[in-house]
């Protein structure tokens, strides 16, 4: 890629190393480390308040860390902030565009402030407006745009100077399905063309669809990392929840399932069995009980959710309060 | 093609200048396209001129000049003082929409965010004051010392308005809510304007109020304007007003740029 010319640093496009940040008494980041290689899509996945936005804000130079360091293409985000800003694009949680300007005026302004010349800013604006399906609406005031159109314009604004590293903070929160799919396609396209993307999301599905590598955050710390395939193999199991009327029956069932090769977990009258083979495995689970334990009084099948991942990953200190 | 700025890249000074103008232009476009803001900025001062001239003016006795000549310097000061609140409102609105966070991640001159806002408000003040002067003229406003004296007085007005804008820029960065910015700004300006001699002579106020009212920047501005427009020895009053404006500008730019830098802490 021409944009990478002259970049002789290690094979890491961005890196966080022990980042710490507090707001008053609230610890937002508690020693966070991750890295992304050039052209990769790194997904930060976590619930509200887990430190996603704080991480992205620090990497994109909008916020200073209290401790640790972060680099973008080898440039320190605090010491070399001015240089970092030349190689990054940033689209925040809210479409940060001016409602009283037209789409074209917004892009021309951000383009100029991104150090493109006047003519180049205008040309890039037209190119991106067409590319994001906003050509027809280009000269309308943004206050007449739909939420999806604003987000696309916001993303376009982040791409004006062709940044090799792109930060997207919850880019699809609040978007309808069609807009979300469109944005996903845009991110994939950017990644294919060599852009490194750091993306935050609350949606497991989104991280799965886009990210090469996922970092799961909880309480400002890393709760788990892996490729989507690794995480799914680990946490993507269907859960069968079996309820029993007596504790003894539940214990018998637990023993029967264990001897049949399952790994049941029990909480009082309730048994949970995980299966990576999908909900069809329920028949096998019930067969394992047949004749060895009383029939369950209730059976529920639960597809995997992000909650399961968090519960699994943050088990221990938090498991009690989460139950 | 390299993305890096080459030898032909403009210097930092030029960047700060052109970024400031770009941001200022954006703020002016926004103003023009927000009718309620424009009405508040332009129509309201005009109404004040007409109201005080024709509705209240007959009942207010001032020593010496026609009330309209006494009034106009006061209304100019009132207009830029209240207008400065718009600086806080605009910045806090940009804070709320996330635009300021975007600006922080752009390779733009940092000063341009505040500079562009205050320069736009300066341009708005120039427009408003021009309109008001025209209305005032139609309502009988004249200076025995001619247009030069009026222009000098207006220069003081604009300088004070610009200095005050920076104070409200600092305020706007601290509240991410335009309504809160407005609510915080109005009482301060209210006290400064209405304890000054903008509309009535200070001599009619009780002593304690007079002591405060005559030693604050809005009053200094009004006194200097009147000295220029109505005549009399003006140099002393003009210097005091200029000193207020310069001092406030210095303090407020420091506070505001510091607030902006601290937003990322």
Protein model, in words:
The complex is a heterodimer of chains A (323) and B (265). Helix content of chain A is 36%, strand content 25%. Chain A is of the alpha/beta class and 323 residues long. In chain A, helix 6 links the parallel strand 7 and strand 8. Chain B is an all-alpha fold. Chain B has one domain. At the A-B interface, helix 2 and helix 3 of A face helix 1 and helix 5 of B.
CATH class of the largest domain in chain A: Alpha Beta
Determine the strand fraction of chain A and express it as a percent band: 25-35%
Number of helices of chain A: 12
What order do the SSEs of chain B take from the amino end to the carboxyl end, as H and E? HHHHHHHHHHH
**What is the oligomer described by this structure?**
heterodimer
Shape descriptor of chain B: elongated
Q: Report how far the terminal alpha carbons of chain B are from each other.
A: 35 Å
- Strand runs of chain A, count: 14
Compute the number of structural domains of chain B. Answer: 1
CATH homologous superfamily title of the largest domain in chain A? P-loop containing nucleotide triphosphate hydrolases
Secondary-structure-derived class of chain B = mainly alpha
Count of alpha and pi helical runs of chain B: 11
Give a short account of the largest sheet of chain B: none
SS class of chain A: alpha/beta
List its traits.
heterodimer; A: 323 residues; alpha/beta; Rossmann fold; 2 domains; six-stranded mixed sheet; four-stranded antiparallel sheet; elongated; disordered N terminus; disordered C terminus; B: 265 residues; mainly alpha; 77% helix; 0% strand
Please describe the topology of this protein.
The complex is a heterodimer of chains A (323) and B (265).
Chain A: E1 14-23, E2 26-36, E3 41-45, H1 52-59, E4 67-72, E5 75-76, H2 81-87, E6 88-91, H3 103-113, H4 118-131, H5 147-159, E7 165-169, H6 177-192, E8 196-201, H7 204-210, E9 213-218, E10 221-226, H8 228-235, E11 238-243, H9 247-259, E12 265-267, E13 270-275, H10 282-289, E14 298-302, H11 306-313, H12 319-322
Parallel strand pairs in A: 3-8, 3-9, 6-7, 7-8
Antiparallel strand pairs in A: 1-2, 1-4, 4-5, 9-10, 11-13, 11-14, 12-13
Helix pairs in contact in A: 3-4, 3-5
Chain B: H1 12-32, H2 35-56, H3 67-83, H4 85-97, H5 99-105, H6 111-138, H7 146-174, H8 178-194, H9 207-213, H10 217-230, H11 235-262
């Amino acid at each position: 890629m021409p944009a990478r010319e002259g970049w002789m640093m290690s094979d890491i496009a961005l890196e966080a190393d022990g980042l710490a940040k507090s707001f008053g008494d609230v610890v937002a980041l508690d020693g966070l480390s991750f890295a992304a290689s050039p052209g990769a899509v790194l997904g930060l996945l976590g619930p509200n308040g887990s430190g996603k936005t704080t991480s992205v804000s620090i990497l994109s130079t909008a916020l200073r860390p209290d401790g640790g360091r972060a680099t973008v293409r080898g440039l320190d985000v605090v010491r070399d902030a001015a240089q970092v800003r030349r190689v990054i694009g940033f689209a925040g949680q809210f479409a940060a565009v001016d409602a009283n300007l037209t789409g074209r005026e917004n892009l021309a302004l951000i383009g100029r402030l991104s150090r493109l010349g006047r003519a180049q800013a205008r040309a890039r604006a037209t190119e991106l407006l067409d590319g994001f399906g906003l050509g027809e609406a280009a000269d309308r005031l943004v206050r007449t745009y739909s939420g999806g159109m604003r987000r696309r314009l916001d993303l376009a604004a982040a791409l004006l100077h062709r940044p090799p590293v792109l930060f997207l903070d919850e880019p699809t929160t609040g978007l309808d399905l069609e807009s979300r799919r469109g944005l996903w396609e845009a991110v994939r396209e950017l990644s294919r063309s060599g852009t490194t993307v750091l993306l935050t999301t609350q949606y497991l599905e989104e991280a799965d669809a886009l990210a090469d590598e996922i970092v799961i955050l909880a309480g400002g710390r890393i709760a788990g990392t892996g490729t989507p395939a690794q995480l799914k193999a680990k946490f993507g199991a269907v859960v069968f929840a079996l309820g029993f009327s007596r504790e003894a029956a539940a214990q018998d069932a637990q023993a029967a399932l264990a001897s049949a090769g399952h790994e049941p977990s029990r909480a009082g009258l309730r048994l949970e069995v995980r299966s990576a083979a999908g909900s069809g495995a329920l028949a096998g689970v019930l067969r394992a009980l047949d004749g060895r334990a009383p029939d369950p009084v209730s059976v529920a099948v639960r597809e995997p959710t992000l909650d399961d991942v968090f519960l699994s990953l943050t088990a221990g200190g938090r498991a009690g309060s989460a139950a | 093609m390299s993305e890096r700025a080459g030898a032909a890249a403009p210097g930092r000074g030029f960047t700060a200048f052109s970024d400031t103008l770009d941001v200022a232009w954006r703020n002016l476009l926004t103003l023009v396209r927000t009718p309620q803001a424009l009405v508040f900025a332009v129509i309201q001062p005009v109404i004040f001129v007409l109201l005080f001239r024709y509705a209240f003016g007959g009942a207010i006795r001032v020593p010496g000049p026609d009330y309209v000549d006494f009034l106009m310097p006061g209304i100019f000061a009132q207009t830029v003082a209240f207008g400065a609140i718009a600086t806080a409102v605009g910045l806090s609105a940009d804070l709320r929409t996330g635009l300021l966070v975007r600006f922080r991640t752009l390779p733009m001159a940092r000063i341009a965010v505040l500079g562009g806002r205050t320069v736009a408000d300066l341009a708005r003040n120039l427009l408003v004051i021009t309109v008001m002067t025209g209305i005032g003229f139609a309502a009988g406003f004249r200076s025995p010392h001619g247009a030069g004296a009026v222009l000098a007085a207006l220069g003081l007005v604009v300088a004070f308005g610009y200095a005050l804008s920076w104070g409200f820029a600092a305020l706007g960065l601290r509240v991410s809510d335009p309504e809160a910015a407005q609510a915080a700004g109005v009482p301060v300006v209210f006290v400064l304007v209405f304890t000054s001699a903008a509309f009535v002579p200070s001599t009619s106020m009780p002593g304690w109020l007079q002591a405060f009212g005559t030693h604050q920047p809005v009053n200094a501005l009004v006194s200097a304007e009147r000295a220029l427009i109505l005549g009399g020895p003006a140099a002393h009053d003009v210097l005091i007003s200029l000193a207020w404006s310069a001092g406030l500008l210095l303090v407020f730019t420091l506070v505001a740029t510091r607030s902006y830098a601290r937003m990322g802490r």
